[in-house]
Design a protein that fits this description.
By secondary structure, the protein is an alpha/beta fold. The protein has 2 domains: 49 residues, Helicase, Ruva Protein, domain 3 (Orthogonal Bundle), CATH 1.10.8.420; 114 residues, 3-Layer(aba) Sandwich (Dna Topoisomerase Vi A Subunit, Chain: A, domain 2), CATH 3.40.1360. The strands form 2 sheets. A 4-stranded parallel β-sheet has the order 4-3-5-6. Strands 1-2 form a two-stranded antiparallel ribbon. Helix 1 crosses helix 2 and helix 2 crosses helix 3.
Length: 199
Amino acid sequence: MSSPLLDHLIEALRCLPGVGQKSAQRMAYHLLERGREGGLKLSAALAEAIERIGHCELCRDFSEEKICAICASNSRERSLLCAVESPADRLVIEQATGYRGRYFVLQGRLSPLDGIGPRELGLDRLATRLADGEVKELIIATNPTVEGEATAHYLAQLARQFDVHPSRLAHGVPLGGELEYVDRGTLAHAFGSRIEVER
């Protein structure tokens, strides 16, 4: 007969993405057998993060302040705004590119079947930012999924309403990839959105 507290811990760990019953059991047993000190640190850090981390009022990214450091920075290019689906996407762009503009974090993508529409993505706030005339280009960096493409289309239309130039991240054959190993969908998309070679 197992402990109700242990069962409760296992069930709580299952809220994490990709964690099923077996993984949650392994985590719980590890924390109780060898990682109690780490578990206490995890518990304290999680409680503090949930208590103190909210969303930036301008870009909707995670922030402990009302306005995040990127939005508050005077060194960022105000005329460029990059729309991403998640804070993780924003972080990847920051780490992998030299992008120096600002962001708008959708915290999801349009998915009517899941009840996620423009309101849930904060698109009224985005419209306000586009309407003030400061943004000249909206870089749409949604994922190349069905929902991501629908969201990109919606964002492009929204940008055009305010005379903001919409652009989309390029998708296709990865750098260093070989055509014979690229999946059909990626290759078809890359072929269909080919660009002219500069002279």
